[in-house]
Amino acid sequence: MIQANKGSVIAEFHQQALDIRYKELKYFLGVFNRMSGISGLLAGFASSAMMLSVPRWENPWLVVAFLIFTGSAFGMNLLVILIATLCSLWGPGKALRGNDSSHLHETIDILERQQQMAMRFFVMGLFSYFISSIMVTWLFFDSIGAFIATTLLSTFLFLLVRQSLVIRRAFISSQAFTTGYIRGNPVRSTAAFDD
Predict the structure, then answer these.
(1) CB 111 within 8 A of CB 22
(2) From 119's CA, which of 58, 74, 87, 136 has a CA 20 to 30 Å away?
(3) Please, is 191 exposed, middle or buried when counting C-beta atoms within 10 Å of its C-beta (0-12, 13-18, 19+)?
(4) Gap between the Cα atoms of 135 and 129, Å rounded
(5) Nearest to 104 by CA among 23, 13, 39, 5
(6) Residue 128: burial class (beta carbons within 10 Å; 0-12, 13-18, 19+)
């Protein structure tokens, strides 16, 4: 009877641990879903900016810089979409196909690393899009209008960075994230109780 109770407790413990890891998997899939949606919108804006016909009399270095920042915004947002899509497609399959819980743990580790990489591309793409938007004003407006638009866009970029840092500090601590991964060998741990 004690042996059956011990087996039941251990099985329930591992079931709860896997439930926590499953919630982590769903969390990362939700993050990728949101990032890909916003990146798709920004990539669409960047691609429409690349199709603008730039006047021939403009400074060629300004045009080259505009195309570099617009292309960077488009490319980095496409990278975010690609990372998010592939992780959302293949991540759950890898977690489900394993014989034991190690595949789920490995999948979540991969998703966490890819989410950090996608976030870097997302921030760089957003920054490139802001710089591209500032350059559009210098290509198509007179100096006074371009200066006013640059001031407004720079102000909003500053506020965006400031607010994102405030939100990051509120939600992300300096400590490493705690995961639902249970370390150790559960079979070896239960064998110690048998003696």
Answers:
(1) no
(2) 136
(3) exposed
(4) 10
(5) 23
(6) buried
pLDDT in tens, 77-111: 999 999 999 999 988 888 778 777 677 788 888 89
Return the pLDDT at 5: 67
The pTM assigned to this predicted structure is 0.77
Chain segment 9-42, per-residue pLDDT in tens: 666 766 776 777 788 888 899 999 999 999 999 9
Cα gap 40→50, rounded to integer Å: 15
Name the residue type at position 158: F
Contact 84, 111 (CB under 8 A): no
Q: What is the reported pLDDT for 120?
A: 94
Q: Is the pLDDT of residue 147 over 60?
A: yes
Reported as half-sphere exposure (CB side, CA atoms, 13 A), residue 148 has a value of 4
Q: What is the model's pLDDT at position 177?
A: 59
Q: Which residues contact 61 (CB under 8 A, 6 or more apart)?
A: none
Amino acid at 127: F
Backbone dihedral region of 184: left (phi > 0), alpha (psi from -120 to 50 degrees) or beta? Answer: left
Specify the amino acid at residue 133: S
Q: Dmax over Cα atoms in the chain, in whole Å?
A: 89
Q: Is 146 exposed, middle or buried (0-12, 13-18, 19+ CB in 10 A)?
A: middle
Between 143-171 and 102-140, two packed helices, what is the crossing angle to 10 degrees?
A: 160
